[in-house]
Design a protein that fits this description.
414 residues; alpha/beta; Vcp-like ATPase, Chain A, domain 2; Rossmann fold; 3 domains; 7-stranded mixed sheet; 4-stranded antiparallel sheet; binds S-adenosylmethionine
Length: 414
């Protein structure tokens, strides 16, 4: 490849040169809860709470670059778009599959590079992207959606994400008209309101001389019940159901004090409190800054409270605390990270500044914390296996044929 040639981006793999080029999709990562995706175009801007970012400033930068804003108020990371990130930033046209179900389903369907697979409906294309990456580079995904606008939007995204060579998207009602694919695929995934109506056609679509896997995704147990009946009816075996939940834990580093250190720290605070200069906090204005008084004369106002001028321990210790939070989250998280003060942090007490102070450094420990909100919606996952013995007539057809045969053999000979 020549130096000036643009390397086409694909969500199914990484770019060799790892460089942002015009037309690339880039995930703008401010924090875990604040990400979006842009398509880089000279002359356009990305705007966020930290200010404006020129697209043209990103061209030529490496993926993973930390980019400060023009206002100097914050920064973000420029990330390569993977199927996992796409699931978090995509425009929602429907409910979507999240990573817990995606990874579980792909594992149980035993998906591998080179396989062929059917998915329906395409919906917002969340699962389609992960499937495409797993089957790449030589496998193929046939995805079916009956809603024309969703088809158009997904088609555009597959093209812009470098996946159109390995994804065939068709607009059709698979429950009414079937897949029109025979002896073709290794796996099938159905995220439909009535998956049982597509089971007969699914059976024909499997490679008939191989073992294949089917999975259906349904929020209600009634749907599961009807699907199990249809799968049994059509000779699928090994029918199992799961529900998959994921709980994300945030990892942080916080200082951990021993009892001795904590006692020593408390003694030092008491000592400092005793020798600190009083400061004025206006009674009617708890938010007033240090040094501000409601009296203009400089005297202590009678309505004001007098408090010893100890440092704001929580704030100073938090600022001194390392934590694992990335990106602009730093801004929001520092005040909640630690509740213990660091002795010897900056104070306004002039007496305290006169002598050198002893600094007690705690050990840092790694802790985990559950975020307030966990994203993901759950459904029942129904798995079944197609074997070469599955092919042929359904149970009802077999019974009807047997009944017809019995009836004809018991009929009196003419
Ligand atoms: C929940 S969404 C699928 C979401 C998708 N799994 C994702 O991760 O983005 C279900 C989709 O199935 C489509 N659908 C429903 N019945 C259908 C049918 N009989 N044939 C084709 N598509 C159908 C709906 O239009 C909808 O877009």
């Amino acid at each position: 490849m020549s130096e000036t040639a643009v390397e086409k981006q694909s969500f199914a793999t990484y770019k060799k040169n790892n460089t942002i080029e015009e037309g690339d999709n880039v995930v703008m990562y401010l924090s875990k809860e604040n990400m979006s995706i842009i398509r880089v175009k000279d002359g356009e801007y990305f705007n966020c709470k930290f200010g404006s970012y020129k697209h043209s400033d990103m061209i030529g930068l490496e993926y993973g670059t930390k980019l400060g804003s023009n206002t100097g108020r914050g920064f973000l990371y420029l990330l390569y778009p993977t199927p996992e990130l796409w699931t978090l930033v995509l425009p929602h046209r429907t409910q979507i599959l999240y990573i817990a179900d995606i990874s579980f389903v792909m594992n149980y369907l035993n998906l591998k590079p080179g396989m062929s697979m059917i998915e329906s409906g395409t919906g917002s294309g969340s699962f389609s992207h992960s499937i495409a990456r797993t089957l790449a580079p030589h496998g193929h995904l046939y995805t079916f959606e009956y809603h024309q606008e969703r088809v158009n939007a997904a088609k555009k995204e597959f093209e812009e994400h470098g996946l159109s060579d390995m994804v065939t998207l068709r607009c059709r009602d698979v429950c009414k008209d079937g897949f029109e694919l025979e002896d073709k695929v290794d796996a099938i995934f159905l995220d439909l309101p009535a998956p049982w109506e597509a089971v007969a056609s699914a059976k024909k679509a499997f490679k008939q001389n191989k073992v294949g896997k089917i999975c259906t995704f349904s929020p209600c147990i009634e749907q599961i019940s009807r699907t199990v009946t249809a799968l049994n009816e059509h000779g699928f075996v090994d029918i199992q159901m799961y529900e998959c939940l994921i709980r994300f834990n945030e990892i942080r580093v916080i200082p951990m004090w021993t009892i001795d250190e904590a006692m020593e720290k408390q003694r030092a605070i008491e000592k400092k409190r005793k020798r600190a200069t009083p400061r004025v906090v206006p009674a009617d204005n708890n938010n007033a800054q240090e040094g501000e008084s409601s009296s203009s004369s400089g005297h202590i106002n009678k309505s004001a409270k007098v408090e010893p001028s100890v440092d704001d321990s929580n704030q100073s210790s938090a600022a001194a605390t390392p934590n694992s939070t990335t990106g602009s989250e730093m801004e929001d998280s520092v005040s909640t990270t630690v509740s213990t003060p660091v002795i010897g942090s900056e104070t306004t007490a002039s007496a305290a500044e006169a002598e050198p102070r002893e600094r007690i450094e705690p050990k840092n420990v790694v802790v985990t914390r559950l975020p307030a909100e966990q994203r993901g919606h759950t459904s029942y996952l129904m798995f079944a296996t197609f074997t070469p013995a599955t092919q042929g007539p359904s149970l009802t057809e077999t019974k009807a044929a047997a009944a017809a045969a019995a009836a004809s053999s018991s009929a009196p000979a003419k």
